[in-house]
Amino acid sequence: MESHSQQNLIRTNDEGGAPDAAARPQYPLATPSEPLVSPGPPEGSRGNELAIDIENLTKIYGSKAAVDDLTLRVPQGSFFGFLGPNGAGKTTTIKILMGLAQPTSGHVKMLGQSMDIHQFELRKKIGVVLDDSLLFDRLTGQEYLQFVGRIYGLEREIVDHRVTELLDLFELTPSRHKVIGEYSKGMKKRIAMGAALIHRPALFLMDEPFEGVDAVGARLMKDILIDRVRQGCTVFLTSHVLEVVERLCERLAIINEGKLVLEGTMEELRAGGSEGDTLEEIFVRTVGGEASPERLEWL
């Protein structure tokens, strides 16, 4: 059976978009004095502020440019899809945004602040879900969330309260004393999502957050992200599940071999093809993957 948390959370409309006002998810993640997520600006109040402002960003490894003169602007309060084939430079870009990799050249601003100057302050405002290699396998799920909360400077009482609720929300309470190294891939993504939420970030950087997550867990994570955007937060998402990206994201960018090759809304992306093109068709056409594969003799 679904938990009470899931029943409250999984209430989006049939099109997979944001829930209407009457069906807004009710998160069991708040106390009266300390709501988990900052209210942010009300709907309809978005200005021209940018959550991410990337200018001529280049990152070179050896003789190869993983990111090549990338300029990209992500509006605040948007659900933004960042797409590309394997090796296109998506993860490198996100690691630069996180401060885990230094650019060879170019400039990055997030939430109005320069990453070069305000890296420490910006990290407090960002929630991240990357691959599971960044988790601490020898900590239990509960210990890891407590550690992350304390690293962000939250008081112990607040951390304990939020950890309890996050573990319950993601159905990890029975596994709270199990070390993360023994978690399944889906459980690791859930604990990473909990860590991304615990400090109430204004910006989420999500690199394949739904990979390895079952349908119920993925739905839960999507609903949380949709609600955060409705509350004024920004989600910067990479995923190879293009149907999900098409349904969730207001704007999209496609990079290939480190270069930005297409950017805009779905309507703008369709302008070069057919009105009914899916994101998959646009993506394959853009990155040059339409050629039929050679048949193998033995197949």
Shape: globular
Q: Mean pLDDT across all residues, rounded?
A: 85
Helix count, per DSSP? Answer: 10
Which residue ranges are poorly predicted, with pLDDT under 50 across at least 5 consecutive positions? Answer: 1-45
Strand content of the residues, in percent?
A: 15-25%
* Topology order in helix (H) and strand (E) letters: HEEEHEEHEHHHEHEHEEHH
CATH superfamily of the largest domain: P-loop containing nucleotide triphosphate hydrolases
How many DSSP E strands? 10
Sheet with the most strands? 6 strands, mixed
What's the CATH topology label of the largest domain?
Answer: Rossmann fold
Describe this structure in words.
The structure is a single chain. The chain has a six-stranded mixed β-sheet with strand order 6-7-8-3-9-10, sandwiched between helices. Residues 1-45 have low confidence and may be disordered. The longest helix has 16 residues, at 215-230. The protein has helices at 4-9, 90-98, 119-123, 141-151, 156-169, 185-197, 215-230, 242-248, 266-269, 279-287, and strands at residues 50-61, 64-75, 79-83, 105-110, 113-114, 126-129, 203-207, 234-238, 251-256, 259-264. The chain has two domains: 51-125 and 202-289, 3-Layer(aba) Sandwich (Rossmann fold); 136-200, no CATH class. Helix 4 (141-151) crosses helix 5. A hairpin with a 2-residue loop joins strand 9 and strand 10. With 299 residues, the chain is α/β, with parallel strands linked by helices. The chain starts with a helix and ends in a 12-residue tail after the last helix. The chain contains ten helices and ten strands.
